[in-house]
Design goal:
- Helix 1 runs antiparallel to helix 2 and helix 2 runs antiparallel to helix 4.
- It is elongated, with a radius of gyration of 26 Å.
- Helices cover 75% and strands 5% of the residues.
- It is mainly alpha-helical.
- It has a two-stranded antiparallel sheet with strand order 1-2.
- It is built from four helices and two strands.
- The protein has one domain.
Length: 173
C-alpha cells in the first residue's frame, strides 16, 4: 500500500522553501567556487607541462635523450615534446568537460533558486539578479575562460604538429 505524504500547512511549506533556498544558494556558491579552483588547477598544470616540454626540448638538443629505432624510424624515449603536447591536449579536453558539467550544475541551481524566489514572492532575490540583462553580456567569466582554454588548446595542437613534423624529419634523416 502506498504511503500517504503528510499535508503541510502554508507556514510549513514556506519554511521548507526557505530551507531549500539556503541549500540551493550554498550549492550554487560551491559550483561557482569550483570553477575558480579548476581554473587555478589548469594554470598550474599547464605551467608544469610547459616546463616539462621545455626540458624535453633541451634534452633533445643536448643529445641526452635516449632513443630506439623501430620500423625504420628513430624514436626518442622518455619525456618527449610530442608526448607533452598530447598530454596537454588530453588535460585540456578533460578540463573542458569538467567546466561544461560545472556550468550545467550551477545553471540548474539558478533555475531552482528563481523558482523558489517566485514561490516565496521574492522580487529581487539573488538568483533573479544573476540573470538580469546586462549591456555587455558576452564579457563574463565563462567567455574569459573559453578564450584562455581555447588559446591553450591551440598552443598544444601547434606544438603537437610542430614536434610531429620534427620527429618525422629526424627519423628519415
Amino acid at each position: 500500500m502506498a504511503e500517504e505524504k503528510p499535508v503541510l500547512d502554508h507556514a510549513d511549506q514556506q519554511e521548507n522553501l526557505r530551507w531549500e533556498y539556503r541549500e540551493v544558494a550554498t550549492a550554487h556558491r560551491f559550483y561557482v567556487g569550483l570553477r575558480f579552483v579548476i581554473a587555478a588547477f589548469t594554470a598550474t598544470l599547464q605551467s608544469a607541462l610547459l616546463k616539462f616540454y621545455n626540458d624535453a626540448l633541451l634534452a633533445i638538443e643536448a643529445g641526452n635523450a635516449p632513443h630506439i629505432e623501430l620500423f625504420g624510424f628513430n624514436f626518442i624515449l622518455g619525456t618527449h615534446p610530442l608526448s607533452m603536447a598530447i598530454v596537454g591536449i588530453a588535460t585540456m579536453v578533460a578540463i573542458f568537460f569538467m567546466e561544461r558539467r560545472n556550468i550545467a550544475l550551477f545553471k540548474v541551481m539558478i533555475k531552482r533558486g528563481q523558482r523558489i524566489e517566485f514561490d516565496l514572492a521574492l522580487k529581487e532575490g539573488q538568483f533573479h539578479r544573476l540573470t538580469k540583462s546586462r549591456s555587455m553580456r558576452f564579457i563574463t567569466y565563462t567567455w574569459s575562460l573559453a578564450v584562455i582554454y581555447g588559446v591553450l588548446v591551440a598552443m598544444w595542437f601547434y606544438l603537437l604538429v610542430l614536434n610531429g613534423i620534427a620527429l618525422y624529419q629526424r627519423s628519415i634523416s
